[in-house]
Structure formats: C-alpha cells, structure tokens
Protein: Late embryogenesis abundant protein LEA-2 subgroup domain-containing protein
Organism: Urochloa decumbens
Amino acid sequence: MADHQRIHPVDLEAGNRPSAPLAPNGSFRSDKGDPAQRRGRSCCCRFLCCVIVTLVVLAVLVAAAAAALYFAFKPKAPQYTVDRLSVSAFQLDPTTLTARAAFDVAVTATNPNTRIGIYYERGSSLSVWYEQYRLARGALPAFYQGHRNTTALAIAMAGEVQLGSAVVSGLQDAQRQGAVPLVFRADVPVRVELGRFKLWKVTSRVRCDLVVDRLMDLSSPIKIKASNCKFSFKL
C-alpha cells in the first residue's frame, strides 16, 4: 500500500515573530550607539566653543581700546610732595600718656598730563602717623586740577591719641637725636577726565615717609630732613 502523505498545518506568521525583543521598550540604544546622547554632547561642545570665542574677542577688543586710549592720551601719574609740616600744638599728658597734636601741612599736587584732568572729590582722609599711632587727621577740599597744573594746598590737621610708655620713650629718644620718623597718608576719591569723558570714581592713595628734626619743641619751625612719597590707585 502506498504511504499516504500527511499534511500538517503551518502557522505562516510564527516564523516572523521574534523570540525576544532586541531592546527593552522605551530604549533608544542600538548597535550603532545612542544618537540622542551624541546630539546632546555636540550641542554642549558648540555652546562652549561659542562662549570661548566670544570671551577671546571681547578680551582682544578691550585690549585694543585700552592701547588706543593709552597712545592717544599718554597718561602720566600725578606727583605729590609734602613741602612743609608745621606743628602748631603738641601736648603730652604725663599721667594718661595722651598726645594732642595739631599740624599745618603744605602739600603740592602736580598733574603733568596734557590731555587729562583730575577731579578731587569730597570724602578724603588725610592723617599723620607715628609708628602705628595716628596723631592727627584732616580732609582735602574738593577741587578740579586741569592739564599741566600744579596746585599748592594748605591743610589743617588735628587729633589726640593715647600712647604706650614704650612709645613715649622712643619718641623722646628720637627727639633728642633730631630725627623723628612720621608717615603722612592720604586717601582721596578722584575722577579722571579723558578729553570730554569723565571716568568712574577711584581712590588715589599717597604715602609719604618723613623724617623731621623734632616734634615736641615748638620754639622754632620744624624741618623736614627727608621725604619720600609713593602714589597708587585703588579701584
């Protein structure tokens, strides 16, 4: 007897169904990497590059503008000298060791610039120091100093301070030797004028190291034996 062929039903869609998903649902990963992550890194790199380029361009522009202003105006630092320091009163209380002093200071301010003016504004602080003790203080009047101008200023200063016994002994020794070291300090708010433009306010700082022949003997005017002044700006 001939064998009868058996026909078995076949599910045609079964071969097209994967046995398991290639990647979990909601995942964007593939064999070629994560395109979304690469795009995020690329955007971040482009942003950082733009920021760096912008900062470099701004720095170059600021440097070019500063160089142009420098060569156009050729700024020079103002000059200051203490020409005279007169002690109108100096009293030392032997009981409390309190010193009361009054000074008349003559200061010369010179602006050597040909195209730069200086506005000296209110709020200045001037002082005379012996070691770390402030003997007197005063203030500078507000005024404008024009181009290539020299201005003589007379400043009255007064104050009192309690000294230590060692400080009084050192001051008396310096008096006998005829060389009393003092420091004159000035913090003055100023505005610089470049042509027609008035710049922002800065603080002009002056320090003058002085040596006078005496301090407590007022029988004759004291003499300035040495003077060295330094100048700086504080923004």
Q: What stands out?
A: Confidence is low (pLDDT under 50) at residues 68-72. Strands lie at 79-92, 98-111, 116-120, 125-130, 133-138, 143-145, 149-162, 180-194, 197-212, 224-234. Helices lie at 35-73, 165-177. Residues 129 and 135 are 5 Å apart (CA to CA).
